[in-house]
Design a protein that fits this description.
about 425 residues, mainly alpha, Serine Threonine Protein Phosphatase 5, Tetratricopeptide repeat
Length: about 425
Amino acid sequence: MHSYPAILTATRRPRRVFGAVLAALAIGAGSIGFALAPIGSALAQERAGSTVRPAVGKPLEAAIKLLKRKRGREALARIREAEAVPNKTPYEMYLLERVRGQAAAAAGNASEAARAFEATAASSAVSAAERLQFLAAAAGQYYLTGNYGKTVALSARYFKDGGTDKSIRTLYIQALYLDNDFAAAGKQLQSLIQSEEQAGKAPAEEQLQLLANVYVKQRDNAAYAKVLEKLAAYYPKKAYWLALVDIVSTRSGFSQRLALDLARLKLATGTMRTAAEYVESAELSILAGLPAEAKKIIDQGYAAGLLGTGPDADRHRRLKDMAARNLAEDDKTLGQQAAAAKDGATLLKFGLSYVLHGNSAKGLGMMEQGLRKGGLKHPNEARLHLAYAYHLAGQNEKAVQIFKTVHGSDGAAAMARLWIIRLGH
């Protein structure tokens, strides 16, 4: 089984969560206004059929003032005074837990904050709208403690009760993943990504990365590759292209006959990494009778600083000189050789030579003629070359149309698919 490229990382450290999710749920002093609702005016007054005795209300009011000054630990001490009052009513407990959650979060005590916010959400005194906010706050605090099971349970309840906040959806998915429920995490991510794409938006890179990690955990090679394709399409970074090219070239059934085609794809995606790769690719072009292409590859290798230096610098120079000599000879004899071409394969070869020499009109015409003649041993490879030639000629729309006709399991179709992504289709 193909091993997955190590380009996508997941973390079990709770504070590493997408975007500003935890920032939205940090619950620092004053960051969630509902937790600091005025209590002083409600002391000893009727509110929804409940009363708040001064013995409970005064320390809570003091705690709120301390919170506004960002003194969470001192606020917790005042809350403990209210907690010590015996025979508290359900409404008093509701207020106490409501303020305790805020104070504990401000003091950095996520465990206590999570329990307090969860208790507040469960109170009959809280409104339906606020219940959703407290469920979200509790889920965020449980996430910070590493209790992903609780995060999942409270997030699920949040959505069941009508919550719609996207940051909670992200928190929920991340918790599912970290709780090793990869199937559920994948299902949620697929739905989220699909809805973004249907709305004409690019899915967040982090969402695609996490879905790729889900498939790594599930050892689903095909699904992993498809997500990598989306990452390369939406976020064309070198790391994603390296992984995709690696998958294509190491997939079972890949034909070494397509080594030069693979080199062309590497050059186009910026994934040619070593001097040896440039040298091998140039040599393949020379063997294929395409010195113009060999010169282009060598020039790019020199421009990248990989050729012409180090212990193999003389070899690189000799290869460069050979390509130049072959190109000069090709300039003299191409017309004569092409005129003698009769079968489809030869027409395709010399047609590509003309395109590489800059005569796209003549070259493309010959290649089209060669494809029509038929009798080709590898017709999908021929279509791959024709599409590549159209790309070289600057006709990418036509190139994509032909890339879409490439089939088979020898690697040609897989490379054609990557070319389509590379050309933005």
